[in-house]
Amino acid sequence: MNASATVGVGSCLSTSKPLSIGLSPVPIYLRRRKRRCLTIEAEVQLAGSEVQSTYRRLIILRHAKSSWQHPALRDHDRPLSKSGRVDAIAVSQKLQRMGWIPQLILSSDAVRTRETLKIMQEQVRGFLEAEVHFISSFYSIAAMDGQTAEHLQRTICQYSTDEILTIIGWEEAASMFTGASVELKTCNAALLEAPGKSWEEAFAVAGYGGWKLQGIVTPSSNLYRHSENFEQI
């Protein structure tokens, strides 16, 4: 959701200045490799024969491609490129068809992240109806390797309720939560699930490495499946 969108348009997730958590800047060649994301949170229930299990869904989404047309702009203020806008439309429509619609969106306040989310809200009513919080720290924390997952976890637990089940965050968080190497390009979304009656319980049970990677959604190709639960779209 670079300083990107959403826990999970967060959020998850190429920069010159840190996202916005108030930490010292990173050398420019490192900043441009950082991903910003947006975070979205929602809830899902799967019915069993006797017991109904509740699953928490976490969408790790990098912001769409940003424009470098105006190099004098601060990294935080760079808008989306034309291709980035097209990609944001495509991914939002795919998430809608799959039923991965957020109830809570935790997003970086960077311009490219806000624009990614706005486009998704224009395309999918469910995104527009979700509760949204712009978290300034999501911008700067992305410049700190190894700390994004913990920060995302704390923020999710702070803003979520037991009724909320789907979120969007950063690439680094996706790798830590699943225990796998997850690489997300701009406007790619990783779909994660873990059981839990609350977000605190889901994080306690799954921990780091126990979230199931269900698949990865990209703007230009079909869903890359990790689970038989998803059909190609």
TrEMBL record:
The lineage's top-level taxon is: Eukaryota
GO molecular function per UniProt: peptidase activity
Q: Which InterPro entries match?
A: His_Pase_superF_clade-1, His_PPase_superfam
One Pfam family per UniProt: His_Phos_1
Which GO BP terms apply? proteolysis
SUPFAM superfamilies, per database record = Phosphoglycerate mutase-like
Name listed for the protein in its UniProt record: Protease Do-like 10
Q: Which organism is it from?
A: Hibiscus syriacus
Q: What lineage is on file?
A: Eukaryota, Viridiplantae, Streptophyta, Embryophyta, Tracheophyta
